[in-house]
Specification:
The protein has about 425 residues and is mainly alpha-helical. It folds into two domains: about 290 residues, ABC transporter involved in vitamin B12 uptake, BtuC (Orthogonal Bundle), CATH 1.10.3470; about 70 residues. It is built from 17 helices and two strands. Strands 1-2 form a two-stranded antiparallel ribbon. Helix 15 packs across helix 16 and helix 15 runs parallel beside helix 17. It is globular, with a radius of gyration of 25 Å. About 35% of the residues are buried. This is Xylose transport system permease protein XylH. Its main location: membrane. It is a multi-pass membrane protein.
Length: about 425
């Protein structure tokens, strides 16, 4: 008995093969198994995301808590959230520059000269402190525009331009401060309160309100995004995934609020740093300007052919990074109680660059996010604080930070190579 078999003819065309679907576009409907499969795929393709940093933070906390016995106490964690504001803001600016595949060596000097201009205008000249701050930050933005002009219009390498700027603005900082070299902050002034002020004067309600607000905004954003993609006929996150992501954020936010409230409440430096990170993350991921930055960092010639004004994007990025460095300099001045000739020198710039890279921003351009600056500076400050608590020498701190930075760069290089070999580079 023969078995009938249909063969393609002119009247019965062959059934076309189903097109291959990029797994990144699939809706995850496999429950826990689906998430495990996606995680494995990302690891194999080199897409590690923030996982190494999160694991690093957990290990740092466990190690120093076991050694000191009080690393995770509320007062110590509150101090860490305050101390990261200055270098963290500079690191956010570094992320913008690194996304272009460039480097800015002048940000430490810009932080110093901004603090110096503010102090001279407010203390020596008697100008309103708020106005002095605005003038100083405007000067920092103008410095960034000057760097960007030489780089984008004249064609001088960014490394050379910002190296010259590092020397020039450090000299200007010394000149502005004069022979004394140090100007103390105004008692209970704007700059002085940047590091010492707690919202509501320690009222615990502020931390809870911010945590709940963050959870609500995140959930609303997830739901709106899912609805928008569904309306466009695109796959999106399932309800279960949205609930899981929101739940994870809720645990983190509420535990953070509880911890801060065990000490003095919600510190202003943390609020400002988080606000800047959220705002810049929105700009990079949700605006056409942000997409242009990624495009320029991914390939200049391709960006030009796409109609992007590459010079304008480059100049604007250097302006943003300089402005954030200026703001970071004011927080550093607040922490140390004065503006002096040493502000912005030492390891300030290196810590900011290291924070961006450790957090996951690529040195090769085109990949990164501003949240990486926050994660990276948390790693660096946690290591520094923990080593201070065990009375380790500063030389040891530098060596450990350098080793962590090297590990981050190696991980970035290996990740890029793996992604290229898997067709995603």
């Amino acid at each position: 008995m023969s078995t009938s078999q249909t063969t393609p003819t002119a009247d019965t065309p062959a059934t076309p093969a189903s097109p291959a679907v990029d797994p990144r576009l699939l809706v995850r409907q496999g429950g826990v198994a689906g998430y495990v499969d996606e995680f494995r795929r990302k690891i194999k393709s080199g897409d590690l995301g923030s996982l190494p940093v999160v694991i690093g933070l957990v290990l740092i906390a466990v190690i120093f808590q076991s050694v000191t016995g009080h690393f995770l106490q509320a007062d110590n964690l509150t101090n860490i959230t305050k101390w990261i504001a200055g270098p963290g803001l500079i690191a956010v600016g570094v992320v913008f520059v690194l996304l272009l595949g460039e480097i800015d060596l002048s940000l430490g000097s810009i932080a110093g000269v901004t603090a110096a201009i503010t102090s001279v205008l407010a203390v020596r000249e008697g100008l309103n402190e708020g106005l002095a701050i605005l003038i100083a930050i405007a000067a920092a933005v103008a410095i960034g525009a000057l760097h960007g002009f030489f780089f984008a219009k004249i064609g001088v390498p960014a490394f050379v331009v910002t190296l010259a700027g590092m020397l020039a603005w450090s000299g200007l900082q010394d000149y502005v401060l004069g022979k004394l070299g140090t100007i103390n902050n105004i008692n209970d002034g704007v700059v002085a309160n940047l590091d010492t002020y707690f919202l509501g004067d320690g009222d615990i309600a502020f931390a809870w309100v911010l945590a709940i607000l963050a959870i609500g905004v995140f959930l609303a954003g997830q739901l709106i995004e899912a609805r928008r993609r569904a309306a466009a006929g695109l796959p999106g996150r399932t309800t279960g995934e949205i609930a899981l992501r929101t739940g994870a954020l809720a645990v983190l936010a509420l535990v953070g609020a509880y911890t801060l409230n065990q000490d003095r409440g919600l510190p202003l430096p943390l609020v400002i740093l988080l606000g800047v990170v959220v705002l810049t993350d929105f700009v990079l991921r949700r605006t056409s300007y942000g997409r242009k930055i990624f495009a320029v960092g991914g390939g200049i010639e391709a960006a030009r052919r796409a109609g992007i004004n590459v010079a304008r994007v480059r100049i604007s990025v250097f302006m943003i990074s300089a402005g954030l460095a200026g703001l970071g300099g004011l927080f550093i001045a607040s922490q140390q109680g004065s503006a002096d000739k040493a502000l912005g020198s030492g390891n300030v710039l290196m810590s900011a660059i290291a924070a961006a890279v450790i957090g996951g921003t690529s040195l090769f351009g085109g990949r990164g996010k501003t949240w990486s600056a926050l994660l990276g500076i948390l790693v660096i400050q946690s290591i520094t604080t923990g080593l201070d608590m065990v009375h380790a020498a500063q030389a040891i701190q530098y060596m450990i930070t350098g080793a962590v930075l090297l590990a981050a760069v190696v991980l970035d290089s290996v990740s890029r190579r793996t992604q290229k070999s898997s067709g995603r580079g």
